[in-house]
Amino acid sequence: MSTALPVELDDIQGLVRFGYKHHTEASYLLLRVIDRDAARRWLAAVPICTATSVEPPPETALQVALGSEGMRALGVADAIVDSFAAEFVTGMANDANRARRLGDVGVNEPSRWQWGAGARVPHVLLLLYALPGKLAGFQSAIEAQCAAGFELVDCLTTSDLDGVEPFGFTDGISQPLVDWQRKRPAQDGERGDYSNLSCLGEYLLGYPNEYGGYTDRPLLDADLAGPRLPRAEDAPDRADLGRNGSYLVLRQMRQDVHGFWQFVDRCAGGNPGLRDRIAAAMVGRSRDGVPLIGPADEAIEGGGAPGDRNAFTYRADPHGVRCPLGAHIRRSNPRNADLPPGRPGFVSWAMRTLGLDGEALDRDLVASTRFHRLLRRGREYGVGVPVEQALAGPPVSTETGLHFICLGASIARQFEFVQNAWAVGVHFDGLPNESDPLLGTRAPAADGTPTDGFSMPRADGAADRLAGLPQFVTVLGGAYFFLPGIRALRFLATTQMNGEPR
Length: 502
Ligand code: HEM
Fold this sequence. Notes:
Elements: H1 14-17, E1 25-33, H2 36-45, E2 60-66, H3 68-73, H4 78-81, H5 86-90, H6 96-102, E3 124-130, H7 135-146, E4 150-157, E5 177-179, E6 197-199, E7 219-221, H8 222-225, E8 238-240, E9 246-255, H9 257-267, H10 272-283, H11 328-332, H12 346-353, H13 358-363, E10 375-376, E11 379-382, H14 387-392, E12 400-408, H15 412-424, E13 454-458, E14 461-466, E15 473-483, H16 486-494
Helix pairs in contact: 2-16, 9-10
Bound molecules: protoporphyrin IX containing FE (HEM).
């Protein structure tokens, strides 16, 4: 029987709790260790902003994440590194099967990446956030401090596009509501309703997750770790290296804004109203963020009041007439409960559960959403391209896109599942050979069938189907990191090569 310990906000890196929205300037430094001792000394003492609320907010905030190669380069014992999740240990780019599953094929192939493969796998990721006008000085100071221990693989700059991603759609509207108070009962029972409230253990290791259990993580000999690490809630005789830490996925995704709008415009025959409607169907929201499923009129646990742009499910639109089944937001969060929807009552429940209701069974191909939520923390980069300019062509070489970042307690169950089964998957929700309209690679299926379509179902007959979608998003780099709790970071920076504390 585990004892629920208080949530230690001062041991959690602030990014898990805050998006640092007021810190409109940000950059990400990708580093490799060149001098182990100097790198360790710096990581052992550098000030990190925590999840504790501070008024006024700090002018600058530093967050630190480590890759598995980085842990080894810092001298962390193999036995400890290998006790992290397998996909983190292997890395995003080191496995051809993983690359295929994530859609990192063709022009997305890791061998073509600007960073994230081979000798350009970052060991350490520094995330720098600053209030307006404060980033340049902060970054120079951090770079100077790091110079002795690290070399810079790349510096990813970001832009403040005012909450709009480069294709022109409002972003950052939907996020899971993290149960910081630990009020959501930890249980693995069926849940009949979609809830936006999500157990803390879905995003932080060391706390109960949506299955009512604790996600696997490195648990060490408490005598060796001494008082430097917290004890595991579910195994009090073990030191919990994972507690208060989160896995962090970073992917640099270039967006072809010209290609996107010119394609949509061709499909619309140059009609501006239709062009906007098709583009919105691909996303699932209009450009100003209003969900196509609307009017949003459901009360959703943890999802805002009726009328909120996030208070909706797809229950009343099972065939995707209002919001296509394949729209980006419907794929990346189908907002379903554990059971396929249906009429209340025992008979209906039994038919759905036993798989006797064929229609419900089709919909059940989309697994329960609550095990696959992502806490998105990415930022845009490059210059915004207004739609009119994107349409005017010929394309200028504008470099713009998204530094996609998400946090979760399991990369495999959260990011990789969403990316693979829902975004890249060409049969998502029974769709005929098509992938995410924004993210898809359009690579033909194994039998050569094209996957470059997008279906927009109609109430009165066959779906409208676009064909020949080009690839709009190209992956330029990516890596898996661990964003440790503060005590865990200090431990990793001071533990000796054989894993014994100094
Ligand atoms: C360049 C790449 C991408 C673009 C342009 C993009 C764009 C958007 C936009 C405009 C929204 C709607 C705003 C909102 O609901 O907050 C959204 C939502 C979302 N996206 Fe993406 N996205 C990209 C990549 C990804 C990736 C790689 C994933 C995960 C594998 C992802 C997962 C999500 C999720 C989970 C939501 C919220 C859905 C919901 O809860 O309703 N996105 N994205």
